[in-house]
Amino acid sequence: MEKYSERLKKFNNVYLNGTRITDLPTEPAFSGSIKAIERYYDLQNENPDIHCFLDNQRHPSPISLMIPKTIEDLRKKRKSYKSIADISFGMLGRTPDFINAALASLCAHSEFLGKDRYTNYSNNAIQYYKYVKENNLFIGHGSINPQIDRSIPLGKQQNEFAGVHVIDHDTNGIRVSGAKMIVTLAPIADELLIFNMPGLKPGDEKYAVAFALPVNSSGVKIICRKTTVKPGLSNFDHPLSNSFDEMDAYLLLNQVYIPWERVFVFKNIERSNQFFDKSFIRHHTGHQDVVRAISKAELLTGIAIKLARMLKLDNFINIQEKLGDLTSSIELLKASILLSEETAQVSHQGIITPNINTIQAIRYHFPKMYAKMVQHIQSMTAGSMLATPHYQDFISENREYLMQSLSTGELDALERTQLLNLAWDVTGDSFGQRQLVYEYYHAGDPMRIAANHYLSYDKKEMLDMVNQVFNIKENIKI
Question: Which residue of 42, 58, 183, 330 has the lowest C-beta tally within 10 Å?
Answer without folding.
Answer: 58
